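Running co-folding for pyridoxal-5'-phosphate.
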Amino acid sequence: MENTAYYINEPSGELPQDLTHQIFSSSDARKFHSSLAQYKPSPLVELKEAAKELGVKSIFVKDESRRFGLKAFKGLGASYAIHRILEENPEIDIFCTATDGNHGRAVAWSARMLDKKAYVFMPAGSTTARVEAIRNEGAEVEVVDGNYEAACARAKEMSDRNGWQLVQDTATEDYEEIPAYIMAGYFTHFKEMEDSIHSLPEPGIDIVFLQAGVGSWPAAAAWYYQNRYGKNRPQLVIVEPAEAAGFLTSFKSGKRSSPSGNSKTMMAGLNCGIPSTTAWEILRNTATASMAIEDSFMEQAIRMLHNGQGDDPRVEAGESGAGGFAGFLALINDNRFAELKEALGISAKTRVLVYNTEGATDPQNFQKIINQTPG
Ligand SMILES: Cc1ncc(COP(=O)(O)O)c(C=O)c1O
């Protein structure tokens, strides 16, 4: 079991009853987002041919690749958190964060909309396209000499020193309120499907693949599903890059732990260190399973979504955006996951949901991937 690329959990379904819970329960994110001029629900598309090919009943993709023109869903979280922060402290002028790309761009965009300033810290190796996308939103960007955790430490140090407002999307023991606002902002896209596959009393899907970085987004999803459906919630599978699998490591060791891999993956948004405290508390009790995949599955997923099967709509997915679908492909095609596939009861009746959380945020790499012939 130790070396397997997955973990099968026995979730209790219990949700923490703390400050985070209060913030989530009182989230009015959808109302807030609807008040923004750029707001539009993201499309939900069905891949009928792909479902036939992969042997399941249906595959739905919630496509976030054009959300707010930022090419990722993260604007939902940052904009709502900054709105909540300014409600309490309208005089704040400077926001700060660490990011591997999408969250930083979202913070910079949200600050710019309000004529505020943003400072963003990024890990070494961040691609030029992702750095420039944040600068283009008017933020100051510094690439630190270290990994994602080093960028987080630098953002905190600079915020403490200069009196900037830190808007970090990962929670630690003494920093949980703002990550909870960010997570509460993500609820908007789950609610957007309440007139289709998220209607009551049971969801129109059986299994959801959730790609995880620090875990705030998959945990927001898990909280939503547990809160809305209780024991009727769909099965939730966490997907991470093999070399940065903090949740898989945590599940296997039974406690929140840093990943042991070498952090080499093109899935930049998922290339994080230790899971967020809040996310771990939620996901340990709600996730059905956790799996780790190599980049080759992500590349295959990007090509499949881009090419479209038969008449299926084509979807532009970036490296992290394709993570959930890549997890599903690995489950179907890689024998290492045979036991997990069986445990999840995947069959011709299964209805699958994935979120394409990101479009081509690194266009050059995207082109490279779609031009490759599978080896
Ligand atoms: C495109 C994309 N998808 C998913 C995630 C995962 O979100 P989280 O870090 O909250 O787990 C990220 C995080 O940056 C991301 O950029």
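Result summary
The radius of gyration is 19 Å.
The chain has 15 helices and eleven strands.
Job closed.
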